[in-house]
Give the backbone structure.
Amino acid sequence: MHKRIVTSVLMLGLGFAVLPATGCFYSTGPSLGVLSIPVPVTPYMQKTREDQHEIDLRYAKVPILGPITPGAPTAAMDPPTDHEVMAALERARPMQGGMPFLHEVQRSNVRIVKEKIADYIDDPRVLPLVGPVQLHHVHYKCTVYFTERKIVGYPIPHTLLDDEAVEVLYIDHNHLHQVGDVNYGPTSNY
């Protein structure tokens, strides 16, 4: 019994002696203490957060453009990007989260067709913190043609191939146009 206690104390002492060699403690400069220990994050959670950040950064904000000038074209000029269409497809039909050698889904031969189905402008109105604006609505129908391959490895290994997979997605691009004199402020005569 006495030998076990001595061995445990020696192992604990050895553990504390090796701890500064990890680089997490007793380093020069400012320290975060216990908060400097790295916390493991699953790849799924990391990918989910990165994808959400990219969607928020690229597509979640409504831009405010200048006023529509008389006689100028009012049609929207930016159809959805291929990245935006594929991100919407991933939200509609998730492909990730498979387990290698048990269940995998692959997409190949992807072809995207984009059609504008609506383009209209609302009447002017005043929005708080923005001012007088018009909302410009643009709706797109995006048809994605692809080859989908599902590989199942358990209990009986087999592959399911769909050469003519089709998914239809509807993507909205909305933005605001300022209305009236956009140069009002402290230097104007209003």
